[in-house]
Design goal:
Elements lengths: L1 E6 L3 H13 L2 E6 L2 H10 L4 E4 L2 E2 L2 E2 H11 L5 E5 L4 H10 L3 E4 L4 H15 L4 E11 L2 E10 L2 E9 L16
């Protein structure tokens, strides 16, 4: 499931986008302020971020820059009324991966999200135990991280109790 964080101060637009994307099997969390979004990013990283430029507590462009200083790989799409070519170029310079001008078709937004995620190699990852081995006194389990059915990365993790391990990104700091 694609986890979407969406910063939007217009509740009608936020609700419309949320409902549509949830019909497309996305989990969407909306934020009415940049401060609320920034706080959420410190504890959990979504699959993709939708960001309005004009927010009541600041500019989405500044938050985009803040994110890029910490996470180069988080896909970001601006959704904004600012359609001037200077604004669009600025959005990309601040670190956006795509830029959609309001009003927009929801199906087009969803398609752009999927295309960006496909290029970024993002998606739902499954962990599969390959085999265990002893190294020193600790049992280490090799886990294969998969995207779809294609192996991407092998990681070495400690699993002292043999139970499931949640991998959580904690890279958003002040």
């Amino acid at each position: 499931m694609i986890e979407v964080y969406y910063a939007e101060d217009d509740e009608i637009i936020a609700q419309s986008v949320k409902e549509y994307l949830e019909e497309k099997n996305c989990r969407v969390t909306t934020f009415g302020t940049l401060a609320a979004l920034r706080s959420a990013l410190r504890s959990r990283i979504p699959t993709i971020l939708l960001l309005d430029w004009n927010m009541p507590d600041g500019r989405g462009s500044e938050l985009c820059r803040w994110i890029r200083e910490r996470r180069a790989d988080l896909p970001i799409i601006f959704l904004t009324v600012r359609g001037d070519s200077h604004d669009i170029v600025s959005g990309f310079q601040y670190g956006a991966d795509d830029y959609v001008v309001k009003p927009f078709a929801l199906a087009v937004l969803h398609s752009r999200m999927l295309a960006l995620l496909r290029r970024a190699g993002a998606g739902t990852y499954r962990l599969r135990l390959i085999h265990g081995c002893h190294q020193g006194t600790a049992l280490r389990d090799f886990l294969q991280v998969e995207y779809g059915h294609h192996p991407q990365v092998k990681r070495l993790l400690r699993s002292p109790d043999g139970g499931a391990t949640d991998l959580v990104l904690r890279e958003m700091t002040e």
